[in-house]
Amino acid sequence: xxxxxxxxxxxxxxxxxxxxxxxxxxxxxxxxxxxxxxxxxxxxxxxxxxxxxxxxxxxxxxxxxxxxxxxxxxxxxxxxxxxxxxxxxxxxxxxxxxxxxxxxxxxxxxxxxxxxxxxxxxxxxxxxxxxxxxxxxxxxxxxxxxxxxxxxxxxxxxxxxxxxxxxxxxxxxxxxxxxxxxxxxxxxxxxxxxxxxxxxxxxxxxxxxxxxxxxxxxxxxxxxxxxxxxxxxxxxxxxxxxxxxxxxxxxxxxxxxxxxxxxxxxxxxxxxxxxxxxxxxxxxxxxxxxxxxxxxxxxxxxxxxxxxxxxxxxxxxxxxxxxxxxxxxxxxxxxxxxxxxxxxxxxxxxxxxxxxxxxxxxxxxxxxxxxxxxxxxxxxxxxxxxxxxxxxxxxxxxxxxxxxxxxxxxxxxxxxxxxxxxxxxxxxxxxxxxxxxxxxxxxxxxxxxxxxxxxxxxxxxxxxxxxxxxxxxxxxxxxxxxxxxxxxxxxxxxxxxxxxxxxxxxxxxxxxxxxxxxxxxxxxxxxxxxxxxxxxxxxxxxxxxxxxxxxxxxxxx
Amino acid sequence: xxxxxxxxxxxxxxxxxxxxxxxxxxxxxxxxxxxxxxxxxxxxxxxxxxxxxxxxxxxxxxxxxxxxxxxxxxxxxxxxxxxxxxxxxxxxxxxxxxxxxxxxxxxxxxxxxxxxxxxxxxxxxxxxxxxxxxxxxxxxxxxxxxxxxxxxxxxxxxxxxxxxxxxxxxxxxxxxxxxxxxxxxxxxxxxxxxxxxxxxxxxxxxxxxxxxxxxxxxxxxxxxxxxxxxxxxxxxxxxxxxxxxxxxxxxxxxxxxxxxxxxxxxxxxxxxxxxxxxxxxxxxxxxxxxxxxxxxxxxxxxxxxxxxxxxxxxxxxxxxxxxxxxxxxxxxxxxxxxxxxxxxxxxxxxxxxxxxxxxxxxxxxxxxxxxxxxxxxxxxxxxxxxxxxxxxxxxxxxxxxxxxxxxxxxxxxxxxxxxxxxxxxxxxxxxxxxxxxxxxxxxxxxxxxxxxxxxxxxxxxxxxxxxxxxxxxxxxxxxxxxxxxxxxxxxxxxxxxxxxxxxxxxxxxxxxxxxxxxxxxxxxxxxxxxxxxxxxxxxxxxxxxxxxxxxxxxxxx
Lengths: 557, 557
Description:
The structure is a homodimer. Chain A is α/β, with parallel strands linked by helices. Chain A is built from 20 helices and 15 strands. In chain A, the strands form 4 sheets. An 8-stranded parallel beta barrel of chain A has the order 8-9-10-11-12-13-14-15, surrounded by 6 helices. Chain A has a 3-stranded antiparallel beta sheet with strand order 1-2-3. In chain A, helix 17 packs antiparallel against helix 18. The first copy, chain A, is globular and about 75 Å long. Chains A and B meet through helix 7, helix 9, helix 14, helix 15 and helix 16 of A and helix 7, helix 9, helix 14, helix 15 and helix 16 of B.
């Protein structure tokens, strides 16, 4: 059987767990040695594609079976007509179903992935504390949850295509990001072929896809923010919704009156969407049309079940600007808009910063929860210092782990190239891995059920010198194996009861095993071992003589 | 003038600040453009060496001037005799001077580095809240402070020499670590040439050097822990103290009765020193001789001013074992030993874990402070998850940043090779940079005076598109520059008002400048700008016409 995981996870296979309502939920199962049962982990990779075909349309029968949708024709820029689905009832959103007490197959599927009851999922969605981004026109995606009471998720940004030949490259980058564990991707493409790039990503993405529609609207008006109109923006929303985009970043909180609050900042407005809207507001001296037309935007989103990601256009771009008046003024407006979206049955999450020193991080998530009525929070990092361009996956993973622990539902990755250039394949992987570390650390700190099983399995493998298991349980088996083999390349070293740190015969872990064995043999509690048996054992040790240690090398005390 | 910083910091030069008691304190001064004053940053690199000679013996006149030391002869293994200094008064420790109200040149030097008053330094040392590791036989080192109220420090571990030819390699690794910002180094060498390797590192190290003397003692008894004796250990302490080691890790808290507490752990005892002592205790069924002889150890250390780093031999080696009974039992003993050391005028810091999930991190530093009477805490990470071998510089930088914020004084780095193999030059740099990020983030969060000036200078450079300044202000200018140049290699791009993220003409930062200019021109508060002037400005914008945006590429919203 070929692995859908390529060479990256050599001893993994995809398994499916049967769930309620007939759902079959994929997990990655890692084969282990030493009598350990295989370990199943959350799987973002999606199914294998048939050669030439796209992904299977997993959710299509669920959507069709609900009888509240109809088919429309959408016209691609090349003039081809393709079917798209559109709601014809009051709303086709998971929020609306959840509020009506309906557990959908989407909810059941996500519940199995999270290891919780479907009813709990329904309840969290109904309360607005979680979203299930899930456009009816993106049936290829596997349902997943973004909410504080679920596993912390990771988003990877894509999109730098300006010429046709790069479309396939962007699709490959998406596949690469989900292989390493991205839970959603955002397509931030600009320039030519923006529609086709998005289409290619959607048709091949097993995870929800987000966009920032103002980017495409801006292209349509020649790149002049002041020429943006509601009509152009509205048509762009419909176009993207019919393609299947699962969530839209909408910078509706950048109100005219907040723009001057950024004047004294060290780094002003750093959000690209925020600056487009601020420029529009200033040019027209008018209120942001995303704000004034918000109700109409809701009507479009609920027709396809596109979720809002309410953008933080005034987020801080430096430590100096963190938690300032502009940022929190916009947040207040996002709270107001959340209620409007919910009143129209549209799912909502809230975007957050950015650049925040550690002592100001917790306030961000607590304030967002309070002001935005516990809608899921989705942050970019935050970076906890500005002094390390080239390493901002690390500066931001620190803030991301903390803000995840404190209740942020999804973390937008930052790559090592942030502030400097365009991420390549290596940067995408480095960014996703750093953020999987942050998200998993947050799950552990939140006490998410089952999160620790992977840590414990890996630690048992480490203690028992099961090297292959240690590699395969890691987030990146290839790198772990390669680092080990730099010092000890011989295949026999993989079974050896030592590592290069302390050399072949002396190892700190042996001692514990001896204490444990003695306790087991005598059926004593460990506390009793010394009193009852160690004089005898002491004699054995000394009699055992001289060959317990060979000088080795050690980098740790 | 050639730079002592090599090619790593091209626009930096070493400057000296005159301080009290005639001290001249080095800083690295970064030249900036755009009318910005140069920025001075803490400098760990030390002075340039004369060709063929070692470092200048900066502290020698200060030590000699105090009249409480005498010279002894120490014999190197090759039979060469060299002078060493030894106290002949009650103690020659900075703690003793501080308690007597004396501000030493060492304290004055460190005060200037930290930007505080010498009297404040004296007070912190006298109270035991800070140490100034500073063996009288290591006059080449520049005084520095380890304490909660000072900048958070970073230690880098070295030491993997087993053959003579590698000694120079270890010295080079030390120089490399201090170039990137290591505040101290620990030489953990084992095997042959252990004495010579340490001698070479000490004579060339501008930062304090720590060791774990039990390693060398173990070599002397053929690697058999049960053959260790007090006499062998004592002679090793004296040998290393006379060479100039500044602090010793001493695992005196691994008491016989605590060893069985580790039996039920997932990863038992993972400290190498801890396991050596535990094995000795079990083999003899006797109390750890480092504990029973602790008073005698103090007598040796105070004769040279070697500081204790009280080792955590029972630290957790996995998330599962964090904050367990064994760990905290040992910590209680370290608190007891701290008081004994202080009663003998010996400086003390306390070592901490290891592997700890985020929600249990704060307890570690708070408990250490309470139990160990506010002696400085010095932790290895901690790693906040076990699932990422190959990336443990990141898993541990997360924990390190947090525990630094909460009061840990020094962070022992972890490299990407941790758990897998021996760190090479790249790993040492990656480890030091990750830990400089953690330490600086902690300084920001603690509100350390002046810490934010570097962030602010870099953010101003970023906002003003002073690319060269942005690179030079970063922790690693080489990498920042290289990442930028991958996308925009042309020299002209360094002066360009754009980056590869948003393309050449549209940039979110321009807007803020326009709002700011308008406010300044009209002498209005930003809040008044819109009301007073923006209708007019709005006209200008629209009249300005169509060339504000060229489609670019963007990886962020």
